Structure formats: C-alpha cells, structure tokens
Amino acid sequence: KNEPTSTNEINSQNISATEQLKLLNQAVNESKARAIISPTIENLKNYLVMQQQVTNQAQTFADVWKKVLLY
Asked: Using an 8 Å Cβ cutoff, are 28 and 51 in contact?
C-alpha cells in the first residue's frame, strides 16, 4: 500500500479537509510504527521529516489562532 510520505502529498489530493487530516494521522502513525519496528536510518529520517511537517503546520495554526484572537 502506498502511503503518503508528506503533508504536501496529502494536501494535493482532491479530498475534504477532514479526510486529509485522517490520512495525515494515518501516515504519521504508519511512519512512526515503521521506524519503531524497523529502526533504519531511512525509516527514522522519514518519520522525523513527517513529524516536523506536522509540527510546522501546528505552529502555523497556533500563529493564526493568536492573530484571530487579537483581531
């Protein structure tokens, strides 16, 4: 099964935001599980990249949230 390997791959699909979030969570969880079960450099790197993308997205969300509260 070909899982998305980045948030860009998920966001580029023509699906609802709810489905995108579901796919993102599944992809991150799969990447984490793969890194735990088979801790190769490639698997750990893939997980860390995905985790960083999620962290960046969360930071963007928090930044915009703050702007909305100040508006």
From this structure: yes
Q: pLDDT tens digits, residue range 52-70?
A: 999 999 999 999 999 999 9
Asked if residue 57 lies in contact with residue 45, where contact means CB atoms within 8 angstroms, the answer is no
**Cβ pair 14, 1 in contact under 8 A:** no
Residue with tokens 């930071």: 59
How would you write 2-37 as a 3-class SS string? CCCCCHHHHHCCCCCHHHHHHHHHHHHHHHHHHHHH
Cα 55 to Cα 33: distance, rounded to the nearest angstrom: 18
pTM of the model: 0.75
Residues 6+ apart with CB under 8 A from 10: 4, 20, 23, 24, 27
